[in-house]
Amino acid sequence: MRKLLTFLFVVMTSVQMSAQIRGNNIVVTVEPDHKDWNYKTGEKASFVVEVRKSGTLIDGVSIDYAAGPEMYQDVKKSMVLKDGTLKLTGTMKQPGFYRVDVTAHVEGKDYKAACGAAFSPERLQPSTVMPKDFSEFWQNAINEARKVDLNPTKRLLPERCTKDVNVYEVSFQNMQQDYRTYGILCVPVKEGRYPALLRVPGAGVRPYGGDVWTASQGAITLEIGIHGIPVTMDQKIYDDIFHGALNWYWEFYTDDRDKNYYKRVILGCIRALDYIAEYTPWNNKEMGVTGSSQGGFLSLATAGLDKRVTYYAPVHAALCDHTNSLRGIACGWPHYFYYNKGKGQEKQIEVSRYYDGINFARLITDKQKGWFSFGYNDDVVPPTTAWETYNTVTGPKEISPYQATWHFWYQEQWDEWENWLLKQMNLR
Questions:
Q1: What would the mean pLDDT of 52-75 be, rounded to a whole number?
Q2: What Å distances lie between residue 348 and 79, 125, 314, 343, CA to CA?
Q3: How far apart are alpha carbons 423 and 286 in whole angstroms?
Q4: Residue 215 near residue 184 (C-beta atoms within 8 A)
Q5: Alpha-carbon distance 139 to 126, whole Å?
Q6: In terms of Cα–Cα distance, which of 334, 330, 303 is closest to 318?
Q7: What mean pLDDT is predicted for residues 380-390?
Q8: Residue 19: what pLDDT?
């Protein structure tokens, strides 16, 4: 018995030790002199760069840095920091973000940090133009899609159910016969009528687990995939599809508004609300949509097109203000016109306006509540476009930037988001 206990102790200790790798001993920071990272146009922002090892400054450390308007930095230098620190300044005459990127080279490895300082971000305005027939185009598309019966399927997933929540894989027809949208539906076990939340995905191809936790608080949740394939297969299948048939799917038919990949994706979100309304015990009151990155864009599109949505929460929303780069300003992912400034892409530019989160945001009404969050250091979804999108919305809205995040979440940001969603459903 003693030998067994010793063996178990060694195993447990090994597991615990293997879980303790956390962070880096080498840390690079770029700190602005305004705690909220916000400045007025014409003000001078000061930045302090520090490279530390074991919490102390490194002498004679080699760095590269770039500074200037985000995505268009015009200062690039390499140097050795005698005492591990450097002071920089920057300013902007027009609203936008001044970004400092630093890469330190220590013992053969690179360590990075950045700081995106905002200059009068509340004054940022988008470049994209709303086509005159934007609303008509999308309403016609929705009407055509609804001519196709949902013809839903529903399969219980016993291994995912809890004492409080039943979990199902569901599917329903989207914009045409036999083209289906798949998702994970979570419904409270207790009989009753409930608020609903649609969760829409970020870019990629993957399985989904469903939002069991929110459902356990007293809500119906539906987490959907967008690619017309089941969402409970092995990860390798999704990896193969992502690197095969759906490689760069966001580039599919960008010159054709009727064949554009995101047309059926957006319609799938609307049909998901149809499914919730018709086939779940929704209370016909609170209906929400949320997602991050690509999912942030889909949240804007769904809220803009469907007034059943009473609350929406886009987090670092992608696909906003595609044409910003045509005027030399940071544009939203996938940065369609950034590299060649739109040369030879006249048709793509025209079509992009039908798939721009800004134009969907313009349709959101004063009866829909919004919560926006993003990072000032995000180099995938520039904060320039995130602020533009927020400024575009005229209805009730809240903004909660987490300045130091890149294209990821902090735990506090996640918790605030969850609590806001629950509050909109009267569950907090």
A1: 97
A2: 42, 22, 25, 10
A3: 11
A4: no
A5: 24
A6: 334
A7: 98
A8: 59
Distance CA 424, CA 123 (A): 28
Q: Is-contact 38 97, C-beta < 8 A? A: no
Radius of gyration of the chain (CA): 24
**Total residues found in the chain within this entry:** 428
Nearest C-alpha neighbor of 287 from the set 356, 369, 359: 369
Which residues on adjacent β-strands are paired with residue 315? 292, 373
Q: Would strands 194-199 and 282-292 be described as parallel, antiparallel, or unpaired?
A: parallel
Residue with tokens 């969760």: 199
d(Cα 101, Cα 70) in Å, to the nearest integer? 10
CA 24 to CA 421: how far, in whole Å?
A: 34
Mean pLDDT for 228-245 is: 97
Q: Give residue for tokens 């038919």.
A: 253
Q: Strands 96-106, 61-69: parallel, antiparallel or unpaired by DSSP?
A: antiparallel
* Dihedral angle over CA of 308, 419, 119, 390, nearest 10: 0
Structure tokens at 359: 């134009």
Start-end of H helices in 97-162: 134-145
316 is written with which tokens?
A: 């670092």
* Residue type, position 229, single letter: I
Q: How confident is the model at residue 7 (pLDDT cuts 50, 70, 90)?
A: very low
Q: Name the DSSP class of 407.
A: S
Which positions ≥6 away from 5 have C-beta within 8 Å? none
The arithmetic mean of pLDDT across residues 19-43, rounded, is 93
Name beta bridge partners: 238. Answer: none
Dihedral Cα 323, 326, 328, 332, nearest 10 deg: 20
Helix (H, G, I), strand (E, B) or coil at 309: coil
Q: Is 246:227 a contact under the CB 8 Å cutoff?
A: yes
Confidence of residue 195 (pLDDT cuts 50, 70, 90): very high
Give me the phi and psi of 101, to 5 degrees please.
-115, 135
Q: Does residue 188 have a cis peptide bond before it, meaning omega lies within 30 degrees of 0? A: no
Q: Does pLDDT of 17 surpass 70?
A: no
At what angle are helices 261-279 and 294-305 packed, to 10 degrees? 60
